[in-house]
Structure formats: structure tokens, C-alpha cells
Design brief:
Elements lengths: L1 E4 L5 H14 L2 E2 L7 H6 L5 E5 L4 E5 L7 E2 L4 H10 L5 H6 L6 E4 L6 H10 L4 E6 L2 H13 L5 H9 L1 E4 L2 H7 L5 E6 L11 H6 L10 H10 E10 L4 H5 L2 E2 L8 E7 L2
Parallel strand pairs: 1-2, 1-3, 6-7, 6-9, 7-8, 9-10
Antiparallel strand pairs: 3-4, 4-5, 10-12, 11-12
Helix pairs in contact: 3-5, 5-7, 8-10
Length: about 260
């Protein structure tokens, strides 16, 4: 991976880029008025991070026209609805309450983690796992720095604990009954509606299917339940031992649950 900045960076931005490069053991490349495409042509790296005044952009060699930039996306709309009393299926089906500890095993852009973080509040905790380094860095920095005009939403964003980890290894290392809810959303790898943000991360994600071994570990670790989001026509619920949650007719997204308490 290589790291550069926007054109004519100030000392603060250059210092930020240097810090990232040191952390990632990546090459810091001076911009020198070159385009992103030109810089990529001079490198063998599949990815490039560009630090700008307002955001961190991740470019993938094969789709330079679709940089990944962190944004809370539809989660922001859901959170505003929750503040106005709307019921969110993710919270309803999981039984999530204030003070709960939630483990999101498929963080992606942390949209669902953000909904959980709002629900558990300051007394709870949301741990989100992302196994792919490029995606992890962009989302981690976004959670730290993305500005939201509604303080309670920004606070929920800042509270998420994003970790660079495989859920298989992370679950195996946890103690029995150490979290309340374990959540999986493998369907964001192949979404029904391709948003620009999701399209940008398609090649950066881990597409390995969930295994029975992972679900057994999740059941061991969770106190309340294990929750799975999938396409409504998916056979994963039956394959992995989940009971489908009741939902309206014609919905494309479904949830399955393994109740533990």
C-alpha cells in the first residue's frame, strides 16, 4: 500500500500522512502535482490511501473512479428515526438494550454497528471486526473524525471499537458468555442495491462463507443471542441452524436468530 496527500498539503496533513505510513509500514509518496492514476501507474501496490483535508480516500487499482470514503450512509437515516421513536428491526430482533455488549463480526462500513451503538448507549459497548486492512483503516479513521451535526449520533460513532481481526480467531479467543449479542451480516458483501460506498469495497472484502464452527463459537460467547442478516431467499438460515424472525411479505432482507437466554 502507498500513501499520499492531496495537492499542497499543510504541515498538519503531511504529519497525519506520515503517521499513517509509519503505522502501516507503507511508502509515503509525495504528490508533486501528479494525478492518482499517474501515482498508481508508478507503483506495484493494489491500493493507495490519499489523505485530504476532510477525509481519507482509498483507491483500488482496478477501479480508480470509485474511491472508498467513509460515510454512515443509511445508518444516519435510521438513527434519526430512532431518535424520533421509530422501531429498528435490528434492535427489535436482537433484543438489544442499553448497557449490552454487542460483537459485530462483519463490520464493513459499520452501519449496523452504529445502530447498535446508539441502542446500547454510553453504558454499553459495540465491538466491530474487520479482517481486511485497507477497509479497516478507512473505517477506523472515519469513525474517529467524521463530523455529524447531531451530537448523540457522533458520540455513538466514536464509541464503536473497531478491531482488525478475523471473526473466527477473535471468537475463539473470547471467554464463554462474554458478550450479549453476536451479529453477522455477510450479505453486505453482495448487496441487493449497490450503493457507491458498497461498490467501492467489493474487491476489498473477505468473501468466505460462514461456517458451522464459527456459529458454534458465537453461541458459546453470546449470553442473549446470535443474529444473522441475509437475503430473504437465502438457505444460510437453515444450513447454520437459525430460526427465521417473522417479517412482512415481499421483503428482500431477512433475519435469523439463535436464542440463548
Amino acid at each position: 500500500m502507498i500513501i499520499t496527500t492531496s495537492q499542497a498539503p499543510d504541515d498538519r496533513l503531511l504529519g497525519y500522512a506520515k503517521k499513517l505510513a509509519a503505522e502501516l509500514q507503507a511508502q509515503l509518496v509525495p504528490r508533486r502535482q501528479m494525478s492518482v492514476r499517474k501515482l498508481m501507474q508508478r507503483s506495484n501496490s493494489p491500493y493507495m490511501l490519499v489523505a485530504t483535508e476532510h477525509e481519507l480516500r482509498l483507491y483500488e487499482r482496478e477501479q480508480l473512479d470509485k474511491p472508498l470514503v467513509y460515510h454512515p450512509s443509511m445508518a444516519f437515516v435510521k438513527l434519526k428515526g430512532m431518535l424520533q421513536g421509530a422501531r429498528e428491526k435490528l434492535i427489535e430482533y436482537s433484543g438489544c438494550r442499553a448497557g449490552d455488549v454487542v460483537l459485530d463480526c462483519t463490520a464493513g462500513l459499520c452501519s449496523d454497528s452504529l445502530v447498535f451503538s446508539m441502542a446500547v448507549g454510553e453504558t454499553g459497548k459495540v465491538i466491530a471486526l474487520e479482517s481486511e486492512l485497507p477497509l479497516y483503516i478507512v473505517v477506523r479513521e472515519g469513525l474517529k473524525h467524521y463530523s455529524v451535526e447531531i451530537p448523540i449520533i457522533e458520540q455513538a460513532m466514536r464509541r464503536i471499537e473497531l478491531k482488525l481481526a478475523s471473526h473466527k480467531q477473535f471468537l475463539a479467543a473470547l471467554d464463554d458468555k462474554s458478550v450479549d449479542i453476536v451479529y453477522f451480516d455477510p450479505m453486505f458483501r453482495q448487496p441487493l442495491h449497490e450503493s457507491s460506498a458498497i461498490g467501492a469495497i467489493r474487491s476489498m472484502t473477505n468473501n468466505e462463507p460462514l461456517t458451522e464452527e464459527v456459529i458454534e463459537q458465537a453461541k458459546r460467547v453470546a449470553r442473549k443471542c446470535v443474529l444473522l442478516k441475509e437475503h430473504s431467499m437465502s438457505n444460510e438460515f437453515e444450513r447454520l441452524g437459525f430460526t427465521r424472525c417473522e417479517s412482512g411479505q415481499g421483503l428482500r432482507v431477512a433475519y435469523g436468530k439463535i436464542e440463548l437466554s
